[in-house]
Amino acid sequence: MKKIILICLYLLPSLAIASLDIEQFDSPKQEADYRTLIQELRCPQCQNNNIADSNATIATDMRNKTLELLKQGKSKDEIVEYMIERYGHFVTYDPPITPATILLWVIPLLLVLFGLFFLAQRKKTAKQAVNSDLNSEKMLDQARLNAILNKREK
């Protein structure tokens, strides 16, 4: 049993090496740009992984397309624009401010403010109801006192 475990542990690192993608680059700058781009672009399927860390099919396709575009002589900005055009602003970790993103931030804030306003109005209405009940009781007590005093005076 121990021999089987040792053999498995011995072969495990070779399996990890077998899964690495090996790309051929024309220059060290091209390799550096490739590494930077695959770290900066987000996988549309995995959502919180960049395409370098993702094993999804779409991430593999995006890595291949990035390499292809770099070999065609495209700049990093042109490649990012291509990916945005193809997959949307989600593929970047720093999306631009658009009316849609402003609404995503403003609507929850407005809902919270509306809720606070509603609670304040409800509290104010409850306080007025209590005060009106106290005033009506006070007026009834005053009327009773006046009636008692009027009986004594007669």
Automatic annotation (TrEMBL):
Its main location: periplasm. GO terms for biological process: cytochrome complex assembly. InterPro entries: C-type_cytochrome_biogenesis, CcmH/CycL/Ccl2/NrfF_N, CcmH/CycL/NrfF/Ccl2_sf. Residues 1-18 form the signal peptide. The chain crosses the membrane at residues 102-120. Pfam families: CcmH. GO terms for cellular component: periplasmic space; plasma membrane. Residues 7-149 form the CcmH/CycL/Ccl2/NrfF N-terminal domain. Keywords: Cytochrome c-type biogenesis, Heme, Iron, Membrane, Metal-binding, Periplasm, Signal, Transmembrane, Transmembrane helix. GO terms for molecular function: metal ion binding. The keyword Cell division does not apply. It is found in: Periplasm. It comes from the Bacteria. PANTHER family: CYTOCHROME C-TYPE BIOGENESIS PROTEIN CCMH (PTHR47870). Belongs to the CcmH/CycL/Ccl2/NrfF family. This is Cytochrome c-type biogenesis protein.
